[in-house]
Write a structure and sequence with these properties.
It is a single chain. The chain is mainly α. It is about 70% helix and about 0% strand. It contains 19 helices and no strands. The chain has helices at about 1-15, 15-45, 55-60, 70-90, 105, 110-115, 120-150, 155-180, 185-200, 200-210, 235-245, 250-255, 260-265, 270-285, 290, 300-305, 310-320, 325-335, 340-349. It is flat and about 80 Å long.
């Protein structure tokens, strides 16, 4: 009885995470932000004869509490169902017996191995529960970061909710794939894979594509798609935030309007400038960009500085890196003509 009560408390407590942090956001973080902006507004008004900007009114418009109701209900229901399966899933099968394996979280593969007649169904349930645990922990970290930077919007909750659903489905498909290929994988390994799929659903999806030949493109049909993982300093949280504004890969990052990135994301300008500069170097040199690091060139701005007004440097860079001299010359001309590169150079200088 006590164990069941604790499981219910754990389920409700974990499912309450998103509503509680949103309440805290409006009660404390946003109020503090309003105070800071009001002080800033007063100083700006004192320094200018023109009327001040109504920060409080615009902040209230940007973060309207009513906009959060539907996305909060959406993500909370998903979290509750997942935590119910993880901690209380045993009640769907054997709620009255004592001494049997119970919680999926604590019993692991024993949850389904003790009942061979329904083992497949219970294994699928365990896979879904562990995938949601992984995605929930990632979502909790992500939402807290947005809370700390006063950048918590309704779309964030829809984003993490959809990510949870996606990770559960992908993890389940991977478990089916392992069964279909008759691989001798232990139950604990399957649950670990499910958990990691919850944390990294994109990698799980790539694994599925690599295993199903019908969805593999021929060599002449593929186009290079450089992942954001190639950008130094980029982690999963950063990638999720950039995905929300339409930046899914290195090409998107290189071509995206830099000023829009500054406005729509909470990242410091200097950090965004470094990421975009790295992306632009990758897009100019493709697979040769790593060779440029031998000459100390890690961004497009480093490349500009190294070549500008120094024709001899182009030959030296070609000699050190092994990159074709003509390619370096052409890419340098492209770089100095690119107004977006000039913009991030302006921000740096």
């Amino acid at each position: 009885m006590e164990a069941t009560l604790l499981e219910w408390i754990g389920t409700i407590a974990l499912a309450s995470y998103f509503p509680v942090i949103t309440f805290s956001f409006f009660k404390f973080r946003l109020a503090r932000k309003q105070e800071e902006l009001l002080i800033l507004g007063e100083r700006l008004q004192e320094a200018s004869e023109q009327g001040g900007f109504d920060f409080k009114k615009n902040l209230n418009k940007e973060f309207a509490p009513g906009d959060y109701v539907l996305p909060l209900v959406f993500v909370t229901v998903i979290t509750f169902l997942g935590m119910f399966l993880l901690l209380m899933g045993w009640t769907l099968y054997d709620p009255d017996s004592e001494g049997h394996v119970r919680s999926i979280l604590w019993s692991g593969s024993a949850f389904w191995e003790m009942e061979p007649e329904i083992a497949e169904e219970k294994r699928g349930l365990a896979v879904v529960a562990f995938a949601l645990l992984g995605s929930f922990l990632t979502a909790a970290q992500y939402i807290y970061r947005r809370y700390a930077t006063v950048d918590l919007t309704p779309s964030n909750f829809f984003s993490v909710g959809i990510r949870m659903i996606l990770s559960m489905v992908i993890a389940l498909m991977i478990s089916y794939l392992l069964s279909a290929e008759l691989l001798s994988v232990s139950g604990e390994t399957i649950l670990i894979l499910a958990f990691l799929t919850g944390v990294f659903p994109e990698r799980g999806f790539k694994l599925l594509l690599s295993k199903v030949k019908q969805f593999q493109l021929r060599g002449d049909e593929t186009a290079k798609n450089y992942s954001l993982d190639m950008i130094e300093g980029m982690n999963e949280m950063h990638k999720i935030r950039l995905n929300e504004v339409g930046v899914d890969n290195v090409q998107n990052l290189a071509q995206f309007d830099f000023l829009i990135l500054v406005i729509k994301t909470p990242f410091p300008i200097r950090l965004l400038q470094d990421w975009v500069a790295q992306a632009k170097l990758i897009m100019e040199f493709q697979d040769d960009y790593k060779s440029l690091q031998k000459a100390g060139i890690r961004t497009i701005l480093d490349f500009w500085d190294a070549c500008e007004g120094k024709n001899a440097r182009i030959k030296e860079i070609a000699a050190v890196t092994g990159v074709n001299e003509l390619s370096i010359e052409v890419n340098f001309q492209n770089t100095i003509k690119d107004r977006s590169v000039a913009l991030i150079k302006h921000f740096r200088d």
